[in-house]
Amino acid sequence: MFKHSIFLRIYAGLVILVVLVAVFGYLLVQIINYQRAQEYRESLTDGMAYIISEGVARQPNLQQKMDWISDASDLLELPIHYVDASKVDITRAEARRIADRKAVVRWDAESGIAYIVVGLRDDPDHYLYIKADNITERQMKALAVFILDYLVYYPGQEKEYLARIQDYFSYPVSIENVQSLPLDSEQIGRLRLDHSIILYRDNASIRGTTISIISPIPGSTSQVLVMGPVPLFNWMPFQLATGITLLSLFVLSLGVYGLLVPMQRKLREVSYALNKMKTGNMSLRLPVDGSDEMSTLASSYNNMSDHIQRLIEAQRELMRAVSHELRTPVARIRFGVEMMADEDDYEYRLQQVEQIDKDIEALNTLIDEIMTYAKLEQGMPSIEFEQIDLYDVLNQVMVETQALKTHKIIELHPMPVAVVVEAERRYLHRVIQNLVGNAIRYCDNKVLISGGLDQDGQAYVCVEDDGPGIPEVDRARIFEAFARLDDSRTRASGGYGLGLSIVSRIAYWFGGSIQVDQSPTLGGARFIMTWPAQRYVKKNKRKLLEKKTEESSDHSV
């Protein structure tokens, strides 16, 4: 049921798409955040790497460099190692960062430890290797000490040199007047005691929470060094959330479009076919792929086109055939009336009246055949299926045919057990009557009638004769309306070419088929009609089951 419904597949596809897009969005956020976090770590350490590198470069000899590195390690409370560059594997991207006087940060997600590699301006053969397992306020305040130590070498030019190194910091670094800062008296007092302070600010904008480090400048009571505001890392900033949402919706839209394209294409094909039908072109057929609703629609359209085309062709053939068939008895009636008008012999006039009566009866029979065929051809007639004893109907037709004194042997093959089939008695009787009548007209001496159930549980009736049979090339054509294999013989036998076409349509509406081949016992033609024998029983069982279910539900209530 699931695979046969295009709408269920679309709904299921939408659910799967939502899940896939959600997973895709989550993974994309994780990948982007990993990269953003790496860039954030590097941006925070770039300024520190430049200042420490400059501090080491100012030392005149190796011993003083080592002492400065040791003091810096104690101040930062982080281990700093002076290592040989050949012992550190550097990628091309990391080499470019070191060449640009920036830091290389290697983050170990499992241990939560960052390993920082810092290049030295005047010593390309060595690196500083820093292991940072925890960043606290002490490291942030120590950075201000390194900046002030850098500015000591440029008295009176502090602001100019801060502007020069600003590119190495991802946040502003400046010298400000204490009075211009939003500080309370306690914070100002701490600055006067040469203590650095950290300010936290919650911002409702996209920047989020920020921190600022304010450090006093030695020898100055009015100016301070301000680092920041430094934005804290935001795992889901507004831009990222908006971008991921829009991208997810776009991917979801593409998925929905992909789900709807097959149905849209099939609907376009149906619309095109209907427009062709409107112009009178009945030759176009739709491809039937699968077994969903659209395939059912295409199959229904094809069946409708076949039926309409068949009705139009049958109508044209019927008009041609009727006009041809009616001319002969009408001409005979007109001739008989004219003869009666010129003849005074009473006996002759009675003969003409009898002949006219036969022609009128022939007209009635022809009209009845035409009406029956048209009724069966136009659409499914009102068929009331019921359980019928098949042998009883076969025997009835045999008795009725023998009463016509055809001087032909009609034999009914006996059934070992009673066979009850589902059919409408009137139409089943018509089928057997037409088949037997056709066999009587063309047999030499004998007609054999039989019926029962085949190996597949299908009901069947079989009529055989010992006549000349039907050539294999003509076996399909004989079921067409007004088809005659031997026109003169058919006319002599009183046929109109509608009997077998009526049998074919009744078999179709019974849900079965009619076939003709050569009789293995009599050598003539053998007609076999098969149809489902148990449809009526299953239908009754289903109704009975539904009725019992309703009754049990009423009792439970």
TrEMBL record:
It is an enzyme of class 2 (transferase). It catalyses: ATP + protein L-histidine = ADP + protein N-phospho-L-histidine. The keyword Kinase applies. Residues 263-313 form the HAMP domain. SMART domains: HAMP, HATPase_c, HisKA. It is found in: Cell membrane. GO terms for molecular function: kinase activity. It comes from the Bacteria. It is a multi-pass membrane protein. Pfam families: HAMP, HATPase_c, HisKA. It comes from Acinetobacter pecorum. Its EC number is 2.7.13.3. Keywords: ATP-binding, Cell membrane, Kinase, Membrane, Nucleotide-binding, Phosphoprotein, Transferase, Transmembrane, Transmembrane helix. This is histidine kinase. CDD domains: HAMP, HisKA. The chain crosses the membrane at residues 6-29, 211-232, 238-260. Residues 321-535 form the Histidine kinase domain.
